[in-house]
């Protein structure tokens, strides 16, 4: 093949442009600290980077769900601790009221305190977290407990617990059904349940009538059952809290791993990239120097 001056000139300019383009790309990477700045740079790599970012964003949402759920269950635990204290006080009042030698005024005072405790329990069980009631089942917008016209404590929430997704395909239930807290299954008979509202009304009635035997036997035993039931629910909420804590640790670890993988795909090695840029810059300058020696002056004048 015949080599002409034009052939040499064109080859030189093409190679010079390639070197300049490579140097420009390296310079852009050093400026942005990213391997790619647009999809056309490397479509496959850009696709992987976008997928990783979606995974990180989803993982952050799971972390938000976990943190919110932890605040929820910790508020529940505090509330049930207060309910337990109140129920223990009611139990003490039942024991006092079972004393047959009490004067009527003392018995009336005990009855009044029991009635006051009903309102106290209602207020505690109507605790809310971030504007949502924690013991209303899935009805979080309205107070789940109320006192009827007769002063009876009633649950008006839903029977379904709230669910939260804490990881890909992993759903956890928050114990929000307040009926589980205030209901003893199979009492007073296997086919009938008793609520805390029914029990407290029985206590008030027995106090008014001076039924000391009923107070010291049947109602004292029921008080223990309701306290045990509250402790059972509190224990299950504690188990949920433990699971959430473990899930949060896994989530943090996964987020660190995902971020590390993303960085390896997206971010440049500054020292390595600077070395490449320096080599490309040297190659470009060398190309210009060599071209000045081998090309005709007319072309060099054109390049200047």
UniProtKB/TrEMBL annotation:
InterPro entries listed in its UniProt record: Flagell_FlgL, Flagellin, Flagellin_C, Flagellin_N
Gene Ontology CC entries for this record: bacterial-type flagellum hook
Sections of the chain in a coiled coil: 9-36
Superkingdom as given in the UniProt entry: Bacteria
Location in the cell: Bacterial flagellum
One MF annotation (Gene Ontology) recorded for this entry: structural molecule activity
Flagellin N-terminal domain residues: 3-140
GO biological process: one example: bacterial-type flagellum-dependent cell motility
Main location as per UniProt: other
Residue ranges of the TM segments: none
Alphabetized UniProt keyword annotations: Bacterial flagellum, Cell projection, Cilium, Coiled coil, Flagellum
Domain Flagellin C-terminal: 221-303
Family: Belongs to the bacterial flagellin family.
Full protein name: Flagellar hook-associated protein 3
């Amino acid at each position: 093949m015949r080599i002409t001056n034009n052939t040499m000139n064109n080859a030189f300019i093409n190679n010079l442009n390639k070197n300049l383009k490579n140097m420009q790309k390296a310079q852009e990477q050093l400026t942005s600290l990213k391997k790619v700045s647009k999809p056309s740079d490397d479509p496959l790599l850009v696709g992987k980077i976008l997928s990783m970012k979606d995974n990180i964003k989803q993982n952050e949402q799971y972390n938000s769900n976990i943190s919110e759920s932890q605040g929820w269950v910790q508020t529940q635990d505090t509330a049930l601790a207060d309910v337990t204290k109140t129920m223990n006080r009611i139990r003490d009042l039942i024991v006092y009221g079972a004393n047959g030698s009490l004067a009527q005024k003392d018995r009336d005072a005990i009855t009044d305190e029991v009635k006051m405790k009903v309102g106290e329990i209602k207020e505690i069980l109507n605790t809310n977290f971030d504007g949502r009631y924690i013991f209303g089942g899935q009805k979080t917008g309205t107070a789940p407990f109320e006192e009827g016209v007769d002063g009876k404590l009633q649950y008006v929430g839903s029977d379904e617990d709230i669910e939260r997704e804490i990881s890909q395909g992993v759903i956890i239930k928050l114990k929000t059904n307040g009926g589980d807290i205030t209901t003893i299954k199979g009492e007073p008979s296997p086919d009938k349940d008793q609520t805390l509202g029914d029990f407290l009304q029985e206590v008030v009635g027995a106090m008014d009538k001076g039924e000391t035997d009923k107070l010291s036997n049947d109602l004292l035993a029921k008080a223990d059952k309701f306290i045990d039931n509250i402790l059972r629910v509190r224990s299950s909420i504690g188990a949920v809290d433990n699971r959430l804590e473990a899930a949060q640790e896994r989530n943090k670890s996964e987020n660190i791993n995902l971020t590390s993988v993303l960085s390896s795909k997206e971010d440049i090695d500054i020292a390595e990239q600077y070395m490449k840029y320096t080599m490309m810059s040297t190659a470009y300058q060398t190309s210009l120097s060599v071209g000045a020696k081998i090309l005709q002056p007319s072309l060099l004048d054109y390049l200047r």
